Amino acid sequence: MLLHRSTGAVPCFFPADASRLAMRFLCITPNTSIDRTMVVPGFLAGGVWRAQSGSIACGGKGVNVARALKRLGQQPVCSGLLAGHTGKLAAEVANAEGLEAAWTWASGETRTCVIVVGERGATTVLNEPGPPAAADDWSRLVQDVGRLARSAGGACISGSLPPGYPENGLKALIRAASMNGRRPVWVDTSGAALIDAVAAAPYGIKINADEAATLLGWRVQSVHDAIRAAREIRRRGPERVAITLAADGAVVATGQGDWHARPPGVRVVSAVASGDCFLAGLMAGLAERVSPAEALRLATACGAANAMSRDAGDFEPRRLTSIIVNVSVRLMTG
């Protein structure tokens, strides 16, 4: 993806030269799933409901990042644990979708997640925990990621970790994906895994406000709260920290400065995977060597564009042009 700047003060980003060599990214989903999405107008808990429409897809946050990177003209490769009949179905639908993948096969049965889209974008998500990760399965995943990382310019590790993953397992996965610090790796996770990720000091941490609040033990309810949180997390080791704030946009803290981006208002169909599309935009922008502020602008536009679509990570790249010129970005100095 070539990032073009408009002749005005606000840059404009869109895929341009299809013949241009795309960046290869490794998108790791340790706890991959089959996602079954159903559109159910008026949905409320309880009762019997009939879906208006439904679809299945290979799921998990890293897979969503891969979809968005592909939309942005990049070359993503999916990696992660798959198991059993559900895992075979996940691999089949990912292949049918045109996603390049190199899966690590494990024992058990890949989880199923149910996404119910109701009125005005109100979305209910039911996530199974996934099969426990045996030590030998995790070891093979780390080895496979280390091999795949040799041909990648960067990577992300996204989503929950399977139950029972080994102690220091995430640290080993980050080390393998980064080739011992020689490749940028972003981590997007939560809970105990997020504590482990921050301690491992990867290139980047991307989380939402609730996850930041849980990690730090204080409320993150405003842009200034988020900037404070991002700076504190960065102080603990990661080079860059991004925190998404839903309709209030996102912040990023870096060694070059700290910024806040706010998207324009959009008609929300489903916000599922908007954070993953945000991360894809951030990775793609930084890979193009634009400033952190402009990468944040692209990332924020990607998240907003995804919210206008029913399917996770499936947004229209040309829509970014109309959104991105209305994303405001400001340097945070306080």
Structure at a glance:
This protein has about 325 residues and is an alpha/beta fold. It contains ten helices and 15 strands.
Describe the structure.
This protein is α/β, with parallel strands linked by helices and 334 residues long. The protein has a single domain, classed as 3-Layer(aba) Sandwich (UDP-N-acetylmuramoyl-L-alanine:D-glutamate ligase). It is built from ten helices and 15 strands. It has helices spanning 61-71, 84-96, 135-149, 169-177, 191-200, 209-216, 223-235, 274-287, 292-307, 319-324, and strands at 24-29, 33-39, 53-59, 75-83, 100-101, 104-106, 111-117, 123-127, 154-158, 185-188, 204-208, 240-244, 250-254, 257-262, 328-331. Strands 1, 4, 5, 6, 9, 10, 11, 12, 13, 14 and 15 form an eleven-stranded mixed sheet that branches. Strands 3-2-7-8 form a four-stranded mixed sheet. Helix 2 links the parallel strand 4 and strand 5.
Number of separate strands: 15
| Form type | globular
Structural class: alpha/beta
What does the radius of gyration come to? 19 Å
CATH class: Alpha Beta
Identify low-pLDDT runs: 1-19
CATH architecture: 3-Layer(aba) Sandwich
* Number of DSSP helical runs: 10
**Level of helix content?**
25-40%
Biggest beta-sheet profile: 11 strands, mixed
- Structural domains: how many: 1
What's the pLDDT, averaged over the residues? Answer: 90
**Distance N to C terminus:** 34 Å
Order of helices and strands: EEEHEHEEEEHEHEHEHHEEEHHHE
CATH level 4 superfamily: Ribokinase
CATH fold assignment: UDP-N-acetylmuramoyl-L-alanine:D-glutamate ligase
**Strand portion, in percent?**
15-25%
Family: Belongs to the carbohydrate kinase PfkB family.
Pfam families: PfkB (PF00294)
GO cellular component, one term: cytosol
GO molecular function: ATP binding; phosphofructokinase activity
